[in-house]
Structure formats: C-alpha cells, structure tokens
Amino acid sequence: MTQDNSTPNVIALKLKRKSRQLEMTFDNGETHQLSCEMLRVYSPSAEVHGHGNPVLVTHKKNINISAIDPVGNYAVKITFDDGHNTGLFSWKVLYDLATHQLDLWEKYLARLRAAKASREPLIDMAVKYHK
C-alpha cells in the first residue's frame, strides 16, 4: 500500500492511558489528540463499517487501548481493551479523524440520540482484586 502524498505521515504516537487519549505527531509539524472512544467508534474495520452501512458502536465511553502494533510504514493496528482489534488505522485515516473530529463527534452524538443509545458502559469496569 502506498501513502497518499497529500497526507502527512505519523512520526510519533503517544498513548495517554489515564486520559484515554492517543497523541499523534505528523511530519508536517501538526500534533493532534484523539480519544480512545473516538478511535473505537470510528474504527476502519469491516465490523464497524459493515458493507456500506456503518454500525452504531455504543457503550464505549471508558474504552482504552491495550496495544498498538505497526503495520509496515503506513498504519497501526490498535487493540482496544474490549478485544476489538480488526481495524488498520492508516496515517490517512488517523489524519482524517484528527482534522475532522469535531464534525465527526457531533455526527456520532446525533446518531446516538436518534437511536436512543448511550456512550455509558453497560457494566462498571472498576475491578478490585482481593488477596
């Protein structure tokens, strides 16, 4: 796969687990942050995009990233803590999400409202272990 010359390349990724943000630095000097939730609900996977009919992903407010693996020099495979790991996030996908995130987020919230769905997790994910 070749990189579109008009899309900047990612030169650094920093996962901020506590704030659930992925910081991306591009070779054009821009730095952007995307929430793990945004990345999960806009995953470029077939599971999310369906066959031209995108699935509304719900209950991902507290989602986090558990692994980021490089794919060649054009993308990363992100594994989320809910087990989802089938989307390849190319530099173009990441740049498009980052530079259009306000509009995309509003569209996502509107879809949630229309479906009477929620961002809130179904089960509280705070797990405590006792010795």
From TrEMBL:
GO terms for molecular function: metal ion binding. Residues 14-95 form the Gamma-butyrobetaine hydroxylase-like N-terminal domain. Keywords: Iron, Metal-binding. InterPro entries: GBBH-like_N, GBBH-like_N_sf. Gene3D superfamilies: 3.30.2020.30. This is DUF971 domain-containing protein.
